[in-house]
C-alpha cells in the first residue's frame, strides 16, 4: 500500500523506519527466493520477420512471491544489483536458460539478459562455459543481451569478456538500442551481432496525436545495422501495422505482444513441440 504524508497518523521518522524495515524484509525474501528456487524464467518468442516463425526466445525473470504476489524484474533487479545478489541470481538465470535450451530442438536459441554488474568480474565467464558444457550446447545457440550502461562503466573488462564470448561463437546483442548516449561508439568498439531497437521507437512508428513519428529514426537504424552487418530485432511490436511497417523496412526479427507474450516453460515446450 502507498503511504502518503498529511493525513497519516504515523510520524514521519516512523514511516522512514518502516520503509527501511520493509526494504530489509524484501531483501531477505529476495535472497531466500534465489536460494530456494522461488524464481522462474518466462520465455518470449523472437520471430523471423514475415514467417512469424520463432527462432529464439528471450528468458525473462519472474518472482512470484507467496505473500506479496507477482513482483516484476524492474523492481527486484535493481535491488539485486544494490545488494550483490545479482551474481547468484544472474548465474542461476544462465544455467536455467541453458538447461531449458538443451530440451528444445537444435534450431532454437535462447537470449539471456546480463546486468552491467555481471560484466565487472570473470564470474559470468565461468558460469557461461560451465552451463554450455553441462548442458551440451553449441555456443551459437546462446545470445547474451547487454545494455550500453554495461559498457560505459567498465569498458576494459567488458571488452575482454565480450571479446571472449564472441570468439567462442556466442551471439551478442545490444539491448535497448537508441536510449543511451554513445550507442554508435559502442557498436563500433564491441563485437555485436544483433541490435535490439528499443520499444520506445517502435511505439512511435507512424506517429499520432502529439506523438512524433519515429519512422526516420528507425529507418536510419536499419541502414546503419545493415552497413555494420548486424541483425536487427524490433522490440515491443504490439500491432499488425507495426509488424508490416518493420517488414517493409527489412527488419530481421520481431519481438512483442503481437507475436507472442512471455510464457512459462510449460507453454514454451508445448509451442516448440507444435511448430517442429
Ligand atoms: P528488456 O530486456 O528490455 O525486456 C523486454 C521487456 O519488455 C520485458 O519486460 C517484456 O515482457 C516486455 N515486453 C515484451 N514485448 C512487449 C510489448 O509488446 N509491449 C510491452 N509494453 N512490453 C513488452 P519484463 O519481463 O518486465 O522485463 C523488464 C526488464 O527487466 C528487461 O527489459 C530486462 O532489462 C530486465 N530483466 C528481465 N529478466 C532479466 C534477467 O534475467 N537478468 C537481468 N539482468 N535483467 C532482466
Ligand atoms: Ca533484453
Ligand atoms: Ca530491451
Ligand atoms: Ca529494458
From TrEMBL:
<protein>
    <submittedName>
        <fullName>EAL domain-containing protein</fullName>
    </submittedName>
</protein>
<feature type="domain" description="EAL">
    <location>
        <begin position="23"/>
        <end position="276"/>
    </location>
</feature>
